[in-house]
Design goal:
Layout (H helix, E strand, L loop, with lengths): L12 H7 L2 H14 L3 E4 L4 E5 L1 H10 L3 E5 L6 E5 L1 H10 L4 E4 L8 H11 L3 H12 L4 E4 L7 E4 L10 E10 L2 E4 L5 H13 L3 E8 L11 H4 L1 E7 L21
Parallel strand pairs: 1-5, 8-10
Antiparallel strand pairs: 1-2, 2-4, 3-4, 6-7, 7-8, 8-9, 10-11
Helix pairs in contact: 2-3, 4-5, 4-6
């Protein structure tokens, strides 16, 4: 994938990011949460975690969750996670447990999956897109403010602006659009205008290769195939011969 290049928010932030790669931070976070047998509390709507300073630091560095308040007791910090973040920590990194606030019983992977789907029947598709990018060490956050599904950052949002506005497309078969934000040229034109206005490239993740009847089963994630496509505006006045081609551009 051809990248337009990151827009760092400050001098030397690029070097700071290189010295603290997201992959290394995730490894440290996984180790810390696993060793402490971290438990996330589910209250029927949201997922909460009480952390100590080092875990707070790692969660912030990896940009997981959102701090909601701090207690005076041992400098504990409270985080809230969204559905994709919770399931990624639980299923992919296997570094947390989830319990019910109501009866303090542990929630199994199957029970958690069923809850996610009960809130959004297309959760498996969105989670596949989220985990696809997270596994490539992109920081993924909600794209609600930009009318896309997610936004993807090369590193922590405090260091760099998001490079991609991510749109998730569900396809029945390859090349056949079944569902998504881009249904016609008007939708496409609107997204291009919005993303260009905030200097982001549109990244369409097409999810296909599975039967929709399988979405109730966790193993549907293994069947899903992700296609990456970028959409950019063609500048008619720009000469191809004058464009600089960077053969060392990173791939997504």
């Amino acid at each position: 994938m051809e990248l337009s290049g990151p827009r760092w928010k400050g001098k030397d932030f690029s070097n700071l990011a290189k010295s603290n790669p997201i992959s290394q931070i995730i490894t440290q976070l996984k180790s810390s949460l696993s060793s402490s047998k971290t438990t996330v509390v589910f209250d029927g709507t949201n997922f909460y975690l009480k952390t100590l300073p080092f875990q707070t630091y790692l969660l912030n560095c990896a940009s997981f969750g959102r701090e909601i308040f701090k207690t005076s007791e041992k400098d504990e910090q409270h985080f809230v996670f969204d559905s994709e973040e919770t399931f990624y920590l639980f299923h992919e990194l296997k570094c947390i447990n989830v319990i019910s606030r109501e009866n303090r019983t542990q929630i199994s992977e199957g029970e958690l999956w069923n809850h996610m789907r009960s809130k959004n029947e297309l959760f498996p598709v969105f989670y596949k897109a989220y985990s696809h990018l997270r596994n490539k060490n992109w920081v993924v956050k909600s794209g609600h403010n930009y009318q896309v599904d997610f936004v993807a950052y090369r590193h922590h949002p405090a260091l760099v602006h998001a490079e991609y506005g991510v749109v998730v497309d569900l396809e029945r078969e390859r090349g056949e659009r079944k569902w998504g934000r881009i249904r016609n040229l008007d939708d496409l034109g609107g997204l291009i205008r919005i993303c260009n206005g905030v200097a982001k490239t549109i990244l369409v993740l097409g999810i296909w290769g599975f039967d929709e009847n399988d979405l109730g089963c966790l193993n549907c994630l293994e069947k899903m195939i992700v296609d990456e496509r970028t959409i950019t505006r063609w500048v008619a006045s720009q000469s191809r011969e004058l464009c600089e081609i960077n053969e060392n551009d990173d791939e997504l």
